[in-house]
Design a protein that fits this description.
With about 325 residues, this protein is an alpha/beta fold. The protein folds into 3 domains: about 1-40; about 50-85; about 85-315, Spore Coat Polysaccharide Biosynthesis Protein SpsA, Chain A (Alpha-Beta Complex), CATH 3.90.550.10. The protein is about 30% helix and about 30% strand. It has helices spanning about 50-60, 65-80, 100-105, 120-130, 140-150, 150-155, 170-175, 200-210, 275-285, 305-315; strands at about 1-5, 15-20, 25-30, 35-40, 85-90, 110-115, 115, 135-140, 155-160, 185-190, 190-195, 210-220, 225-230, 235-240, 250-260, 290-295, 300. It has a 7-stranded mixed sheet with strand order 9-8-5-10-15-12-16, sandwiched between helices. The chain has a 4-stranded antiparallel sheet with strand order 1-2-3-4, with no helix packed on it. A hairpin with a 2-residue loop joins strand 3 and strand 4 (about 35-40). Helix 7 packs across helix 9 (about 275-285). The model is unreliable at about 1-40 and about 100-105 (pLDDT under 50).
Length: about 325
């Protein structure tokens, strides 16, 4: 560990910089105030002389004072163009009655799965895929979610979309419109999964030019979710939300995870209770603008006490492995 002192023009010590292992610096401005900063690292790059000349032309002493500062700005600009900011919207606002009495006093996304809440599993999963920002659409017992989550502890930017009254999945999506400017991931606050490759999901969505891409999972009880049939190009051609009759064997169902283009907002009326599954998706299917993405890894909907206990058992027995980030998906 090393220490450096910064001197003011009068010769007095303005602050102490203590460099710690791991290239981090603790800045002491007063006797009891410390600020943790991440130190920059030096890298070598081989550039074309003509490109370096253009960089030097930007160093004008006002906006850019040196080559490093200019190159860093240009790199950030290029990364933002080729890798836009990733935003996820988690729908947490539903008044859940199926898992009562637990949900009387605690919102379902905060129900513990093992040693941490379901919502924290979802956030940690999104962090592994380098999502920059997470929007939480919250309503029922919303103050508990805000009080529990700490964006500094989680290491990711959190934003909130508050519902004054229940808006359902489509209404909650519309209520968050002002916070979203590009394609985004949306997921229900009561689903848990492992092995879902979000990079591949987003790439497949962009390649398909679909307005919405729905993640599909296999289920023996499609009457509880929504049976989905795809054509040879993975477009949704049949969408039966929660069929009354139980089909034989497994079926692909709506897993409650979607990639959505902002153009979908125009199809949802403002400040009304609208269901994505019942009102929005069937219209997109008729337009031929909704695709499916099959997920073969672990997936569960924590919608009933029986499902909740099953996920707990799966975690304890190793059937559910939260550390799995990728699996076979199509």
């Amino acid at each position: 560990m090393s220490s450096n002192s910064a001197l003011s023009q009068t010769g007095e010590v303005a602050c102490n910089a203590i460099v710690t292992p791991g290239n981090k610096s603790v800045i002491q401005l007063r006797d009891t105030q410390y600020y943790l900063l991440v130190m920059k690292q030096r890298y070598s790059m081989t550039l074309d002389p003509a490109l370096m000349h253009k960089i030097d032309l930007l160093v004008d002493g006002t906006r850019f004072t040196n080559r490093s500062e200019t190159a860093q700005f240009l790199l950030k600009l290029g990364i933002e163009q080729f890798r836009p900011e990733r935003t996820a919207l988690i729908l947490c606002g539903g008044l859940e009655t199926r898992v009562r009495p637990s949900s009387f006093s605690i919102p379902k996304p905060l129900l513990p799965i093992g040693y941490q809440p379901l919502l924290e599993y979802q956030i940690e999963y999104l962090k592994r895929y380098e999502f920059d920002r997470i929007i939480l659409a919250i309503g029922y017992l919303q103050e508990q979610i805000v009080r529990y989550l700490d964006e500094h502890k989680l290491g990711i930017r959190l934003r909130y979309s508050f519902e004054k009254e229940p808006l359902d999945t489509g209404g909650a999506l519309k209520n968050s419109e002002a916070l979203i400017g590009s394609d985004f991931l949306a997921l229900n606050g009561d689903v848990i999964f492992a092995g879902l490759d979000l990079d591949k999901l987003i790439y497949t969505h962009k390649k398909s030019n679909a307005a919405v891409t729905i993640v599909l999972a296999k289920s023996n009880t499609p009457t509880r979710f929504g049976a989905v049939e795809l054509d040879n190009e993975n477009r949704v051609i049949s969408f039966v939300e929660k069929p009354r009759k139980q089909p034989a064997g497994e079926a692909w169902v709506n897993a409650g995870v979607y990639v959505i283009r902002p153009s979908v907002f125009a199809k949802i009326p403002k400040a009304k209770r609208i269901s994505l599954e019942l009102d929005v998706f069937p219209k997109l299917m008729r337009d031929g603008t909704i695709s499916g993405y099959k997920h073969d890894g672990y997936w569960a909907d924590v919608g009933t006490p029986e499902d909740y206990l099953r996920v707990q058992k799966d975690l304890l027995t190793g059937v559910f492995k939260p550390q799995e980030a990728t699996a076979n998906n199509t």
